[in-house]
UniProtKB/TrEMBL annotation:
This is Cyclase. GO terms for molecular function: arylformamidase activity. One of its GO terms (biological process) is L-tryptophan catabolic process to kynurenine. It comes from the Eukaryota. InterPro entries: KFase/CYL, KFase_sf. Belongs to the Cyclase 1 superfamily.
């Protein structure tokens, strides 16, 4: 216990997740988050001593709020990562392979690439495509090692409390372009994360729903994607390298999982 207290005094922990609450932003392709108290204090005194309890019921999609994508999340021409048949894989109502329960806990080095900071703005414009060149400029002299987690800040989470604005259906949403996804994959990272709803850039027009980075990272390189992160406090503290901690729920056969990722640095 004394060792734990010593460690806690010597580090600063950044919570990189958003809060889960009714009315929060959720992709139109997901079941929105809903929570209600199912049993209230005072509904029933089960012990006869005055003691009571309360319970809640939660309904949500597995890609709502801060979450990580499992490898079964995307496919192409009937195949998942490794050439697995996507139709056969989900017979029976859950995926037999690559479900959220297969995502190993992460305790590794993390790197923040703060795109608005090097551009001198608070947040990126709607539909701004983050290219390979943008990522390289934001990286500067910092190195990315194999197995690292790379987090990309756009500043878009500043709009999170306004679900319509955050989803950007009428404006587009900044995000990583194909060249940026290829650059990340070439570094052999373990996961990539961002503060937007879909990681990929969303631009108005016929390509609005295209997600090339999802294919590049998940489908072809087995690199997990973390979405709807809150990177504001980390950026304000000008933290670029940190210890990264994340663990998904063991949701057997699910295509993703809610998470509460942490960044840890020396105090």
């Amino acid at each position: 216990m004394e060792i734990l207290k010593s460690i806690q005094k010597g580090v600063r922990v950044f919570d990189l997740s958003v809060s889960l609450q009714n009315g929060m932003a959720a992709s139109l392709s997901n079941v929105p988050y809903s929570m209600a108290v199912f049993r209230r204090h005072g509904d029933r005194d089960r012990t006869g001593t005055g003691g009571t309890s309360a319970n809640s019921i939660i309904v949500t999609g597995d890609h709502v709020g801060t979450h990580i994508d499992a490898l079964c999340h995307v496919g192409y021409k009937g195949k998942l990562y490794g050439g697995v048949d996507s139709t056969e894989a989900c017979l029976g109502g859950r995926f037999k392979v690559y479900g959220a329960e297969t995502i190993d806990p992460m305790f590794c080095r993390g790197v923040l690439l703060d795109i608005p900071a090097f551009k001198g703005v608070d947040r990126l414009e709607p539909g701004y495509a983050i290219t390979k060149d943008d990522l390289e400029e934001a990286l500067g002299d910092t190195k990315i090692n194999r197995g690292d987690v790379v987090l990309i800040r756009t500043g878009w989470v500043q709009l999170y409390d306004d679900a319509e604005a955050y989803l950007g259906q009428a404006t587009g949403v900044p995000g990583v372009a194909q060249s940026g996804g290829e650059w990340l994959a070439a570094h052999g990272i373990r996961a990539a994360g961002a503060d937007t709803i879909a990681f990929d850039v969303e631009q108005l027009g016929p390509d609005h729903r295209q997600r090339p980075c999802h294919g590049i990272l998940l489908l072809f390189n087995a690199i997990h994607i973390i979405e709807v992160m809150n990177l504001e406090e980390l950026a304000q503290a000008k933290v670029k390298e940190f210890a990264f901690v994340l663990s998904s729920l063991k949701l057997v056969g699910a295509t993703g999982s809610p998470v509460r990722p942490l960044a840890i640095v020396d105090a």
